[in-house]
Structure formats: structure tokens, C-alpha cells
Amino acid sequence: MVLWWWSVWAGTLVVDGARWILTLDAYDEECFLLRTPTTHSSRRRNPPQPVLTGDYGLIDDVSADPLLLYVTQGSDERVVYQTRGRPSDTFRLPVQLKEQYWLCIQNSSHGPEDHHLEEPEHEDGRTRRVGLAYRLEYDHNQHDNDDDDDNNNNHHRLPQEVQSHADEWRTQSGDIHDQFRNLQSHHEYLKVRESNHRALAEHNFSAVLIWTLAEAGVVLTVACAQILYLRRFLERQNSRMY
């Protein structure tokens, strides 16, 4: 089963994003169609590079060997990114304007370009639950010179050392922001995993309680039957004596 999702960018720093919890059967995949805008909405002379970032995480306590995530570009679906066999990972890749991309994750180790591989495509045939998040945004590590040009025109250009420190702080703050969002996604996946573990624990506790009550009922029934049997046995013995 393949799902697709339309995404159109706006002119903000983080222009689009989503997070899903997906259930993938063996050899199944989920794909989302992302379309970039035809023109850049920024008014800067050197607009930043658009990038596709995101993360994913395996929720179930099973092997991640058959798990595969890949991104294709264009109508010919050329693979531009691919990773496999990891229980969790982050991805970041530059994208182009006026283009379409497919973001796919599948419960199978063989991707579009892996038909030549000889290892098994899927070993256990088990269903897997995966958390997937993506963001379409502009690269915060790319700094333009618009402010420098304006400062040159106004004869108030910042010192080179101050400008380099400002660019470094912007880059570090952007990296921290990315790490925070990845951590937030990771916590969301952990919440789902803990919810699954709690449901399993409650199911086990309920099963143990039912078994204990059933066992207690059987013991009480046997005890009552023994008492009745001994009573009748003693009554028969007394009747024979008298």
C-alpha cells in the first residue's frame, strides 16, 4: 500500500512538516509526494537553499534489518538518499525548486536500486510500527550578504570578526533547533512505545488475574467436593456401626 501526500511551500523558515506513526506489513511501504514551489518567495538577493530534513524511529522491539528509507527526485524517480537497517536515524538533503520528491519508508531491505542484491529481502515477515517526521525548510547554515550590501551602501558595515561570530551563532542556533526537533520526535516515538508496553503489561496482568481467580475457583470447588465426600463417607460408616 502506498500513500501520497501533497506539500506546497510557503515563504517562512519552516515551510512544511508532518509526523506520522505508520504500521508497515512485511514488504509494505508508505510514500509521500512533496512538491517544491516554482519560484523562491524570499526577497533576498541570495535566497537560502531549500532542504528536506527529518527523522524516523522504529517503535516495536524487533530487528531493524529490513527497514529502508529513501528519497527519489523527479518524474524518473532518481534515488537521491537512502538508508537501511537502522532502528532510528535523521536525514538532511538539499532540494531544488520546481521539483517533486517522494519520501518513502518500507518494511523491506531492497529499495528501487537494490534488485542486484543477493541477501534476503525480508527474513522474519513481521509487521513493524515506525514513526516518521519530515520538514521542508530553508537552510539556516547558508548566510547571504544582503545585510553586508546594505551596510556598504550606508557606510555602516559591521567588522569582519563581528560578522563571522554572528554567522557562527546563527549556525549553532539552527543546529540546536534541529537537534531539539529530532529529540522531540524521538520522545513522541518513545511515548508510543511506552504506551504499547503499558498495554501489554496490563494485558498480562489481566491474564494473570483471570488465571489466579480461575485457579482459586478450582481449588475451592475441589475443597468443597472433598468435604462433601468425607461427610457422606463418615455418615455411611456411622450408619453401618449402628
Automatic annotation (TrEMBL):
Its main location: membrane. It comes from the Eukaryota. This is GOLD domain-containing protein. InterPro entries: Emp24-like, GOLD_dom. Keywords: Membrane, Signal, Transmembrane, Transmembrane helix. Coiled coil: none annotated. The chain crosses the membrane at residues 208-230. It is a single-pass type I membrane protein. Residues 1-17 form the signal peptide. Belongs to the EMP24/GP25L family. One of its GO terms (cellular component) is membrane. Pfam families: EMP24_GP25L (PF01105). It is found in: Membrane. Residues 19-235 form the GOLD domain.
